[in-house]
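dumping this here before i forget
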Amino acid sequence: MLGDRESSIRCVGGITFDADGRLLLIRRSNDPGRGRWSIPGGRVEPGEDDAVAVARELHEETGLVVTVGDLIGSVVRSAERGSYEIYDYSCQAVGGRLRPGDDAAAVAWIDGVIFTALDQAGALTEGLGEALRDWDAVPQITKNRPPR
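structure:
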C-alpha cells in the first residue's frame, strides 16, 4: 500500500469560465503534454490543501486571481513512474491580468467552436475533452458580439 501512495502524485486543476462561457486554457510548455492545451493546474505542494494549490497554480500559469469552488471531477493519468491523480475544481476569476507564466507557453479564453477544433485536431491533453464532456464543463459556443 505504501508503494501505491509513493507512486501517486496529487494534482489539481481549475475549470474557469468567463462571462461569455469561454473556458480558460493554457498551452503547456513542459511535459507531460508539452505543446497541448490543458486546464491550468499542477502538483499539490507539501502542506497545501487543494484550494490553496489551485489558486497558486492558476495565478502562476495565467496571472489571474481566482476563488476556488466545488470539485467538478477527477481523473487518473499515467506518469513516468506511477500516476497523476488530478482533482479539477470550479473557479471564478476575481482579479489579476491574463498572461502566460510558469508552465504555460500561452493562455486563452476558448469558446466551444475553438475547443471542438482543438479536440478534433488532437491538440488537447490526453482525455481532457472526454472528461469535460462527462462533467458537462465544455465551453459555450459564443455569438458574435459588438465590441465593448
